[in-house]
Design a protein that fits this description.
Elements lengths: L1 H22 L8 H21 L6 H20 L9 H29 L1
Amino acid sequence: MNWKGAISRFVITLLLLEIFRYTLSLFPAITLGEALMIAALVGGIGYLADEVFGGYLSPPGRSFVGFIVTTTIVSIYFTHFVYPIVHTFAYVFDSIAIGLIVGAADAILGWAYQKAH
């Protein structure tokens, strides 16, 4: 499920970045190109993390890797938006929220893949 997991993380992260961009007022103004770059990094680094752990993780393992990778990448990217200190909490909250959703989706997709095979 390595490349399928990377593609699912890419798509889910891209959709979440786009949805949050339009629904949250404190979400940083990022372009579609930046969202594509962040999603590609999350998918690629998530793929490499899966490979480090042997290629096939259990659904909770995939969920944990998806959460950590997504939260880290999005947090690192959003740190350059932190000019006024007031928005720091909003960016951290957004990063954690995106990471939790991607992690939950990874777990659900992992269980579905495990039942199919």
